[in-house]
Amino acid sequence: MQEFTSSIRQGDSTLGWHFTIPVIKDIAEKFTENDRRVMCSINGEKAFHAALMSDGRGDYFINLNKERRKKLGIVVGEPIQVVLTEDESKYGMPMPEEFEELLMMDDEGSSFFHALTPGKQRSLLHLIGKPKSSDVRLKKAIVINEHLKNNQGKLDFKQLNQDFKDYNQQFK
After folding, report:
1. What is the pairing mode between strands 79-86 and 37-42?
2. How far apart are CA 148 and CA 167, in angstroms?
3. CA-CA 20 to 30 A from 94: which of 26, 35, 116, 123?
4. What is the rounded CA–CA span in Å between residue 89 and residue 101?
5. Nearest-angstrom CA–CA distance, 29 and 31
6. Cα–Cα distance for residue pair 141/27, rounded to 1 Å
7. pLDDT confidence tier of residue 172, bands split at 50, 70 and 90
8. What does the CA dihedral 50, 123, 89, 109 come to, rounded to 10 degrees?
9. How many angstroms separate the CA atoms of 70 and 76, rounded?
10. DSSP reduced 3-state for 153
11. What's the average model confidence in pLDDT over 74-92?
12. Helices 157-170 and 134-150 sit at what angle, rounded to 10 degrees?
C-alpha cells in the first residue's frame, strides 16, 4: 500500500481534455512489475480499479473521468489524499454477475472471452458493467457473447456497436 498527496491535473490531448493524478516513479514502481493495475482510493472514498500509465518522462499517472471527479467533488489543483494498493482481481475490474452466469452456461462463449487479451476483456467488462439496470447489463452480455461466437473470438468494436443497435431494434 502506498499513500501520498497529489492533485488533479488537466491536460489537453488529441482526444480532448483529460484529467490525471500524477504518480511519481518511486511510488509507481512498486506496482509496475506485473501489469500496472491498482486499486485507487481518493480522500478515503471507496477504491476503484485503475492503471498506472507512463507519462513518457519517467513518472506515471492515473486517468480520472468526469463522472468520478464530479462524484468525489474534486477540483483541479486542490490537494487530494491518494491510496494505491495492488489490484488482485482476476480481470482488473469487477466481473458483472450477469456475464459471469452467462459464461458459466456457455463454454464456447467463455473460451472466446478468455482467449482475448486482458485489455479487451476489461473493455468488454466495462461495457457490460456500466449500466445500472441488471436488464441492460444482461442484454449487453448476451450481445457481446453472441458477437464473440459469431466472429470466432475476434472482437470488432464497429460491428459490436452495430450488433447492439440490431439487438435493440429486434426487441422494440
Report:
1. antiparallel
2. 15
3. 26
4. 18
5. 5
6. 37
7. low
8. 180
9. 11
10. coil
11. 93
12. 120
> Would you give the end-to-end CA distance of the chain in angstroms?
49
Three-state DSSP state, 76 = coil
Average pLDDT, the chain: 91
Arithmetic mean of pLDDT, 49-58? 91
Q: Look at residue 16 and tell me whether its pLDDT is greater than 60.
A: no
Phi-psi region of 43 (alpha: psi -120 to 50; beta: other; left: phi over 0): left
Whether 61 and 13 have beta carbons less than 8 Å apart is answered as no
- The confidence score (pLDDT) of residue 17 equals 62
Contact present, 11 and 17 (Cβ < 8 Å): yes
Helix runs in the chain, H state only: 25-28, 66-72, 97-105, 107-115, 118-129, 134-150, 157-170
- Burial code (b: 16+ CB inside 10 Å, e: under 16) for 46-83 equals eebbbbbeeeeeeebbbebeeebbeebebeeeeebebb
pLDDT, average across residues 78-95? 93
Residue 15: the pLDDT is 59
Residue 34 has pLDDT above 90, yes or no: no
Kindly state the average pLDDT of the residues 94-108. 96
| Closest C-alpha to 29, from 55, 8, 63, 59 | 59
